[in-house]
Amino acid sequence: MFWRSRSHKGRSVTGDKMKTTRRAFALGAAALVAQPLLSGAGQMAPQRRIDFNAEQTADLNAISAWLNSVTSLSADFVQLNPSGNLAQGTFTLARPGRLRFEYRPPSAILIVATNGNIYVRNSRLNTVDRTSISDTPLGLLLDGNIDLKRNPQVLSVERKPDALVLHARSGTNRLSENIVITFASPQIQLKQWTVTDIQGGKTSVALSSIRTGVPLDEALFAVPVKLPAMRKDPH
Fold this sequence. Notes:
This protein is of the alpha+beta class. It has helices at 16-29, 54-69, 139-142, and strands at residues 7-8, 11-12, 72-80, 86-94, 98-103, 109-114, 117-122, 127-132, 154-160, 163-168, 179-184, 189-196, 202-212.
């Protein structure tokens, strides 16, 4: 269980505190989804871009070209949260604008991004939370026409053995880096990412069994809904 409601004298704690806890997990759990608690939420991205050198520009162009070439992607993922807990599931991406994180049991979480919003369903609590993609760094992956060298969220890119590492800031944290995305190189492919929350906790997601250009059912990206309430038997 990834979050837990506490009770007092038989009553569950509800309201803003529980909603904030659910949303903080959900957005962190998606890994590229920045928590709304990050400072500067809702601010516009700064217009000044970083001046990249020729090598960095070439690397950013290579990553951008790969992302723009991907219309669909499916992969298994392993997630490590700040507490050291592991979760696994299936990650699905359909560009532009849609993705899905389906967690395996015992997790009750499903995350879907579609139509400009991110929806987080907890089937155990029978809740669905929503936030805007514009408040997150998801545009780095989901935009229709990606040009990372012109994206004010991108701070730097570095070359490592067999990898290119992108350092960026989310749409809700404009002052410092809080997203690191790693791509395999020289054959560019999304590999893993790490999101840092406002308390300094890191949530990492690593992908495996990656397939691109796969046919995907449109139903995967349907907006999650709550289950209908069950009527109590009067007898």
